[in-house]
Amino acid sequence: MLALLFLLSHLCVVHTCRTGTLQECHDAPFVPGHNLAGEGFDVVTLQHKGAYVLDFQTYLTPNNTCTICENQLQGNQLQKLPLSVLDWRSFSNCKQELTSAILSTATSVAESATSVIENDWSIGLELGDLVNMNVGGSHSNAVEFAMSQSRVDKSAFTSHQLSCAHYSYRVPRSPPFSSEFLKHVQSLPAQFTNETQPLYHRFVETYGTHNIQKVRLGGRLTRLTSIRSCLATVNGHSASKAKDCINTGLSIGLGYVDPSFTTSNCKSLLQNEDSQTQSQLSYLNHVTEVLGGNKWRGEVSLQKNDSVEFRSWLQTLKEIPDVVSYSLVPLHELVADPTVRRNVKDIVRQYLRDNAVPKEQPSQQCTGKPNLSPECCPLSPKKGRLQVTINDAVLESRHDPFGEPDPYVKMWLELGQDQRHFHQTHYIKNNANPKWDIDYDLGHVEAQYDLVFQVWDKDLKYDDHVGTCRTWLTEGLTRDLMEF
Hints:
A hairpin with a 6-residue loop joins strand 18 and strand 19. The protein has 2 domains: 89-358, no CATH class; 383-472, C2 domain (Immunoglobulin-like), CATH 2.60.40.150. It is elongated and about 120 Å long. The chain is an alpha+beta fold. The termini are far apart. Strands 6, 7, 9, 10, 11 and 12 form a 6-stranded antiparallel beta sheet that branches. The protein has 11 helices and 19 strands. Helix 3 (106-113) packs antiparallel against helix 4 (141-152), helix 6 packs across helix 11 (338-354) and helix 8 (239-253) crosses helix 9. InterPro entries: C2_dom, C2_domain_sf, MACPF, Perforin-1_pore-forming. Keywords: Signal.
C-alpha cells in the first residue's frame, strides 16, 4: 500500500495545473520550451525552419485568465502555458545509458535519424510511388555525413545515443496561428501556374513541410561514427567491435565506468591509426549532435573520465530543453481554403520527390573467397590476386650464332632469398619474334614480392640466358615492356 500511495503522489505532482489570475499570468514565466512546437519543420532535413506557424505567445483567455502550472523540476515554480499548449507534463525520464546500433548504409542512417518521429509523417501526402526512395531525413546532417563518407570508401556506421526527456505537450486540433503565417497563406493565389509556383516554393522554403503536433522535450547526445570498412578490416577491426569499443569509450568519458574497464584491443582500435598499410588515414570518423542544454559540443575523451561538461549539460536540460521526439502533421492540413490547401499539398509533394534518393541495398557479401572478409574487404594488406600474361618478344640473332633462337620465358616471385610460383613457357623453335600469349593465374600474392622474368634460348647442350628483368607489383592493369 505504501508503494501505491507514493506512486499516486508522484503522479499528482506532475499534473498540478490550474487557472491563474490576471496578475499571476503576467508575473509567471512561460514553461521551458513552450514555443518549440510552433515552428515549421522540414522532414527532408529534419530541421526547424525558424518561422512560426502557430501562435505561442498568446496566453490570456477572453476572461483574462490563463493556465498556471507548478514545475516540479524547477522548485515547483509557477509557470504559464500559451493557449496553443495542451496536456503539458513535467517528469524525469533520464536513464543516462547509451543505446548503440550498427547502420550498414546511408539508408539505415536515414531510418535511424527519423526514428524520433513518433507517427507516420507521410499520411495524407500520397507518396506511395516513393516506397523505394529515402525521403524523410534524406538530406539531414547525419545522412549527408554518411553519404560523404560512402563516396570516399566502403563504409559502415555506428550510432551511439543518450537522451533525457523532462516535458511533453501537444497542440490543439484547431490551433491559433501566428499572424505572419496567416498573412502568408492569405497571399497565396488560388491559381497554381508556372507564374505562381515560385510563391508556393517560397512558402515551403519558409515553413517547411510539416508542423509539430506533439513533443517530448529534454536533451539528446548522438555520436555517428563512420568506419572505413576495408581499412579497419586489414587492421583487424570490425564494425561490431568498433560499436562495442566506442560504447565503452563513451561510457568512460561520460563517467559511467572506470577507465580500467577497457581492453587492450579497444585501446588499439580507438587509437584510430593505420598500423598495417601506413596510409596516414583514419578508419574512424565521427560527427556529434547535441540537442538541448547549454552550448556543450558533446566531445569527450574515450580513454579517461571527461564528464564535467557533460554533467553540467544534464543539469541545464530542465531549463533549456529541445525537442527529442515528436509527432508531425502535414503543413497543408493547416490551410483552411481548399484550393490553396491542395496547392500547398502539391508543392510539398513535389519538394519531397525532388529530394528523394534511392534506398541503398546492403553491399554484396563475399563468402568462400581467400583473403576477403564477408564484406569483400582484403583480410591482409598489400595482397591481391595476380594474373600475368606473357605476350611476345623481339630477339636479335646475335643471341644464337648458329641460327635463329629457340626462346622461352621463366617467371617467378622473389623476395630476398624467397622464390616461389615458378612458371615456364614452352620454347618456340627458330623464331626471333616469338608470340606466346599465355595467361598465368598466380592466385593471391603479397605485393612486396618482385615479379621476375628471364628469357632463355634453348640449345642442345646448355641453354643460353638472354636477359633478366623484374617489376614491382602494383594494383590494377599494368603493361610492361622489358629490354635487355
